[in-house]
Amino acid sequence: MKILVTVKRVIDYNVKARVNADNTDVDLANTKMALNPFCEIAVEEAIRLKESGTATEVVVVSIGPKACQEQIRTSLALGADRGIHIETDSMPESLNVAKLLAKVVNAEQPGLIIMGKQAIDSDNNQTGQMLAALLDIPQGTFASKVELIGDKVHVTREVDGGLQTVALNIPAIVTTDLRLNEPRYASLPNIMKAKRKPLVVQTPADLGIELKTHSKLLKVEAPAERQAGIKVNSIEELIEKLKNEAKVI
Amino acid sequence: MRESMEFDVVIVGAGPSGLAAACRLMQQAKEAERELTVCVVEKGSEVGAHILSGAIIEPRALEELFPDWKKMGAPLNTPVTEDQLFMLQSDNKSIKFPNLVVPKTMHNQGNYIASLGNLCRWLGEQAEQLGVEIFPGFAASEILYHEDGSVKGIATGDMGISESGVEKDSYMQGMELHAKYTLFAEGCRGHLGKELYQKFDLDKDNDAQHYGLGLKELWDITPDKHQPGLVLHGSGWPLSKGTGGGFFLYHTENCQVVVGLIVDLSYENPYLSPFDEFQRLKHHPVLKQYLEGAKRVSYGARAITKGGFNALPKMTFSGGLLIGCNSGTLNFAKIKGTHTAMKSGMLAAEEVFSALNNGCNGAKELTGFETRFKDSWLYEELKQSRNFGPAMHKFGAILGGTFNFIDQNICKGRLPFTLRDNKVDYAQLKVISDYSPIDYPKPDSKLSFDKLSSVFLSNTNHEEDQPCHLKLKDQAIPITQNLPKYLEPAQRYCPAGVYEVIEDESGAHFQINGQNCLHCKTCDIKDPAQNITWVTPEGGGGPNYPNM
Amino acid sequence: MAILIIAEHDNNILKAATLNAITAASQMGDELHLLVAGLDCNLVAQQASKIAGIKKVLIADSEAYQYQLAENMSKLVTDLASNYCHIVSPATTTGKNFMPRVAALLDVAQISDIVKVVSENTFSRPIYAGNAIATVESLDAIKVITVRGTAFDAAKQSDLSAPIEIITAVHDAQISEFVSEEVAVSERPELTAAKVIISGGRGMGNGENFTLLESVADKLGAAVGASRAAVDAGFVPNDMQVGQTGKIVAPDLYIAVGISGAIQHLAGMKDSKIIVAINKDEDAPIFQVADYGLVADLFEVLPQLTDKL
């Protein structure tokens, strides 16, 4: 079985995003960029499935400017077999991403598509679900466990208040949550080998997709700072305020 | 057995000297149509992540390395347009020196205000295009030797070891990188460099090395106050008599200024806190005029090697070389180390390449380097400035400054004598009973800030579950010796709040918050008991400086 | 045009997150319809009909919707969508699961996790883990929106009952099935899911003193957290850490005890609805972000708090 993994280039999770001076976006100039952590977990899961003999090939795909080939190479260094880069000037909206990916899925015919549940820049949490809908295939979102049982994939999902397991027909989409696995480090020899693994570059036009605009980003602002409230003088007063004023207990 | 890889040259550290060396090596290989394998390991998460400098950059070495650097888009975009030099007399008084009396080395026509981190990012791209393998996120943690004692290469650190020393799921053993020649370009007080000094007795013939701690912030200021190319330097307040150092404030591109303070680590007062000196400095009208109403964007700190010519060690040993600030090539009279570091890397590259071309395999020491170095402008420049630092330390800012004016402007550094300054920095610290506490004002969170909110802006992080990378030779010393004698100065000299003494019912405890570490190396330098050894944490940890 | 809100429930009880989503929807328009899709979920529909502002309740009762599988839910909602200008759901794991499918089937974008309704087509939402707030204008005819519950008050109950309309269409995609579920039965909620969190800092003095927090937590059904200083000092394990390098939480109530309030800690809890700080140092930075501050010795007041709750 072939596995397709999607990866996104985002700001490194150690780096705080900073809103730019004219409030049009965050300032990413010379900021450390990295593989989206949830995508890294997706890559790791795919490699583990390959190592366990369940999968035969792991293909990674990324969409964005040329620089995102760096994240494809990182994924190849972690153990993926080949890469596909769909080159666009900017980062397309989720629905466009899903449409581009649908074309890749149709061409590659993977049995499983593993994606991060969300990217830590836009925090949308939607592309995997959208892709599943476009392909009319099932999804296991927020996965903390993925198992192939018979001709189905069983996905344990982290839902509010517990865990839910669903059985999905194949092909299916899995989106990863933090506890699915702990990604490995890429070794130096593998980083060098990754430079020679195949990487194909395509454009949205090659795939026959026209990128549509569904929304307009009007402004980006720093979150409002919290203001100091009041001082209370006793536990009694505190409890009274929490009960009657804030209504949180 | 660890896995190993073979290279012609391994370079430790992707800073200006390491990357210049890598580029120069490949340029020569291309000219000679010779196959050459060069690898650079860098402990930061990416090239530039750990680079922190003023910086005013003299383009001399860059010009030699890439004559087309402007066309190629090197990020030196802001030429210096005006130099101002101040003596701060108190928290609101200052004297501005007329240009005429400023030592020549402090004139900056033809130089550029730039982010050294961004210059390194650019140099890294050039190096990769030339065929250099750069591995960010891999820390060189160990020197490997041949049986004959010559350097064989380095090993990268193991990854995925827990705090208690157990291998975690993510464990990955380090790798041996073997090379005919290994260049150590770790920057000031590199921890492998420190081992090399001892192993090969590299500093037996030079004066004691001296250090400063540089603290720096990047600010977004309002356009009406922004004068791109304006450079301010000064000394005096808030540092008290006997403490050397000085401030800088540069108007760089994108409506930003960088502001910083360098505090000589030869200071004597154990109450001194370089961080707090820097915070109160910004309230002085000379600096405040630009920072008021502005927003702080980034913070960082790094020790600098400032002993200069007199403190230069032997830079060669069998199997390798020390280059850049790891050997101490910074020109303190100019407060510039980028062009000198790059030049030292380029000279090393030329010597290594000619040795490789002659069939040498690293077993023999590169003795030809010394001649190459002595024939270069780098040597000439450092020699001319040899008295600058010692004069400032010996005579103080005013007399020392006068001396430097005469030395640098009138005699052009050719005075027939050399001032020496041979007492090591950590031994300068005096006991707490000789001083009364310094009353630092509370930060106002507008111009001045506390340590932790500053560290926050450095984007510093380390994997939580790993062994502490700040090693104490003797666990007891901080509490039994340093606390009574010096009120454990690590609490104050560390610009990142790594060290704390916590008192509770059971007594005082020494707490090391290694995760905050900015990799500045001050603790390794200034601990009066020389009890703290800085070693590399897991690769990729440490600050993530953008535009610093 | 009307607005369709999708109810979050367990076939017996309407979940509170629905009420916050209703308030958000009410800022987009007046004609609010609530869809209850489930199995034997009539009780939920009854509850839903008594919420202020709801004009109509739609009930789709079928085995296909018992577990609100995304594959089936998305088809049901898409089928109803042509009558609506907005489709709104709480940004819970259920809503996040099926709503993007709805958007894709309708060929429109989804605006995720909104915290503010600027106008009927413009919304604010956090990006970069809350380090920035984006204001986005939707250009689509149908706006698919998920709502962050803590950003909106709960809709109130009404004396009137809205009519309940039965949806008979059954969409069973038959490509996925429910296998099992495991409800978290820990005595205390998970930090990231808790509605109330009480955290201790270095001021707790040692690990044993955390029992003082646990007693309060037991009374409030709260999770217990810690600052990095407390973790670094070895008081408690790392998985209790709230902050920049620990867990990011946003409960309704966050009680910080003996925590100075370093920015690294604030980064992990500043989006909490109500913050209470208990610290004996009145200059502690935590008071600058606390809605209610109590300057006191925690060892004196924590037992009092336990007693009086």
TrEMBL record, chain A:
SUPFAM superfamilies, sorted: Adenine nucleotide alpha hydrolases-like (SSF52402)
Domain Electron transfer flavoprotein alpha/beta-subunit N-terminal: 23-211
Function as written in the Swiss-Prot or TrEMBL entry: The electron transfer flavoprotein serves as a specific electron acceptor for other dehydrogenases. It transfers the electrons to the main respiratory chain via ETF-ubiquinone oxidoreductase (ETF dehydrogenase).
Organism this protein belongs to: Pseudoalteromonas denitrificans DSM 6059
Single annotated GO MF: electron transfer activity
Pfam family, one: ETF
Record-annotated membrane-spanning stretches: none
Key words, A-Z: Electron transport, Transport
Family label: Belongs to the ETF beta-subunit/FixA family.
Record's protein name: Electron transfer flavoprotein subunit beta
Record carries keyword Electron transport: yes
Domain of life of the source: Bacteria
InterPro entries the UniProt entry points to: ET-Flavoprotein_bsu_CS, ETF_a/b_N, ETF_b, ETF_beta_N, Rossmann-like_a/b/a_fold
Quaternary structure annotation from Swiss-Prot or TrEMBL: Heterodimer of an alpha and a beta subunit.
One BP term from GO: carboxylic acid catabolic process
Swiss-Prot/TrEMBL cofactor(s): AMP
From TrEMBL, chain B:
Gene3D superfamilies given in the database record: 3.30.70.20, 3.30.9.90, FAD/NAD(P)-binding domain
SUPFAM superfamilies (UniProt xref): 4Fe-4S ferredoxins, FAD-linked reductases, C-terminal domain, FAD/NAD(P)-binding domain
Keyword DNA-binding recorded: no
Record carries keyword Manganese: no
The ETF-QO/FixX C-terminal domain, residue ranges: 446-545
Cofactor: FAD; [4Fe-4S] cluster
Known EC number: 1.5.5.1
Cofactor: binding details: Binds 1 [4Fe-4S] cluster.
Function: Accepts electrons from ETF and reduces ubiquinone.
Protein's UniProt name: Electron transfer flavoprotein-ubiquinone oxidoreductase
Organism: Pseudoalteromonas denitrificans DSM 6059
Origin organism lineage: Bacteria, Pseudomonadati, Pseudomonadota, Gammaproteobacteria, Alteromonadales
From TrEMBL, chain C:
Record Pfam families: ETF, ETF_alpha
Record note on cofactor: Binds 1 FAD per dimer.
Binding site for FAD: 202, 227-228, 241-245, 258-265, 279
Domain Electron transfer flavoprotein alpha/beta-subunit N-terminal: 3-182
SMART domains: ETF
KW DNA-binding (keyword) present: no
Protein family membership: Belongs to the ETF alpha-subunit/FixB family.
Assembly with partners or alone: Heterodimer of an alpha and a beta subunit.
Protein name, entry field: Electron transfer flavoprotein subunit alpha
Native species: Pseudoalteromonas denitrificans DSM 6059
Lineage: Bacteria, Pseudomonadati, Pseudomonadota, Gammaproteobacteria, Alteromonadales
